[in-house]
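step=encode ok
step=design start
structure_in=
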């Protein structure tokens, strides 16, 4: 069990007969990913409605004064928290998608399929209605932009779904659990429509603003909490790396090697739920990063080894999230672009192409 051969690019298939260690992907993919994330990070801080020279950005980050005083506030109060949130949320969703795709041996598994996002949305919808019933002044005082009440309610909603999924995971198989999560998510989505039917126009706008999904309304205090939860989740994935690699060889083979399959599945679902719930709580529902990042990582590194894929998915998710946020905040004359719209335009065709070229070809054979 010290060496697990995992070389297939599919999350759902690999050979149990090989014995060689997976070949190293080399340094170039890592250099490209790290460089890409670094470039997007710099562009996020320099480009916007107000263009700030790179030397002034570096001066502010290093604690010196910028040429224009207001640039200091633009960078530290708006652009830096937004960029750090995008990087953190993107990396969390990338890892979350990989965990779910491996656990359920399904290339389409992501937080939306398990109902985690819809349950978080239901929590926010209930929060908006309850706070609104206390009076619009209460809703305003809680402050949508502060994200505190919304984050808490979304987290409670995701936690409720996580508890239910963990209970099911201890009793049913992977396929049944995936379908159960999908159905529970649709129930939650239906309840959202029922709840919003009884809201006022102001309450509906409050929900719609959060539901749109963005990294704008997270300050340093909220980002610190989000980053702490994500760091805890990443620490748990390190412990799960070897069991996840063994699961790629099949559940029966994993049991012969002493892996507690149900316990491993419960742990993976719990970590994925924590990551997805935290991101959804602070940033709203973010699409496609969870499903897109693992596929791109497998194509880029040509391996299914989680020792490689986990950090690769984190970097890819971070880079894609920050890049989409950069495009949305370019100095357009009219600001109608939305984060999820950009992710959908890129993610939808990309995932479809990867599925048709990879999984579809194998099914035809």
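sequence_out=
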């Amino acid at each position: 069990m010290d060496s697990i051969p995992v070389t297939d690019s599919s999350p759902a298939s690999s050979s149990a007969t090989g014995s060689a260690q997976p070949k190293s992907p080399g340094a170039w993919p890592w250099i490209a990913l790290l460089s890409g994330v670094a470039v997007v990070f710099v562009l996020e801080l320099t480009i916007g409605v107000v263009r700030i020279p790179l030397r002034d950005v570096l001066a502010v980050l290093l604690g010196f004064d910028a040429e224009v005083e207001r640039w200091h506030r633009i960078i530290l109060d708006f652009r830096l928290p937004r960029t750090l949130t995008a990087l953190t949320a993107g990396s969390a969703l990338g890892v979350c998608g990989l965990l779910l795709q491996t656990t359920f041996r399904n290339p389409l598994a992501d937080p939306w399929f398990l109902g985690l996002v819809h349950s978080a949305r239901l929590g926010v919808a209930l929060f908006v209605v309850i706070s609104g019933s206390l009076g619009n002044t209460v809703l305003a005082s809680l402050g949508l932009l502060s994200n505190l009440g919304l984050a808490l309610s979304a987290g409670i909603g995701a936690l409720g779904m996580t508890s239910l999924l963990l209970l099911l995971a201890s009793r049913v198989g992977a396929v049944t659990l995936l379908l159960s999560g999908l159905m529970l998510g649709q129930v939650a989505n239906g309840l959202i429509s029922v709840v919003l039917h009884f809201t006022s126009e102001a309450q509906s706008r409050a929900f719609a603003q959060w539901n749109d999904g963005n990294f704008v309304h997270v300050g340093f205090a909220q980002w610190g909490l989000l980053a702490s939860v994500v760091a805890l989740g990443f620490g748990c994935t390190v412990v799960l790396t070897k069991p996840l690699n063994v699961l790629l060889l099949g559940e029966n083979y994993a049991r012969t090697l002493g892996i507690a399959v149900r316990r491993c599945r419960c742990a993976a679902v719990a970590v994925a739920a924590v990551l997805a719930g935290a991101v959804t709580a602070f940033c709203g529902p973010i699409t496609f990063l969870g499903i897109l990042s693992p596929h791109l990582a497998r194509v880029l590194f040509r391996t299914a080894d989680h020792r490689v894929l986990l950090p690769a998915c984190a970097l890819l998710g971070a880079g894609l999230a920050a890049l989409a946020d950069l495009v949305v905040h370019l100095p357009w004359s009219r600001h109608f672009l939305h984060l999820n719209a950009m992710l959908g335009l890129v993610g939808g065709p990309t995932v479809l192409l990867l599925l048709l070229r990879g999984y579809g070809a194998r099914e035809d054979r």
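step=design ok
step=annotate ok -> The first helix runs from residue 28 to 46.
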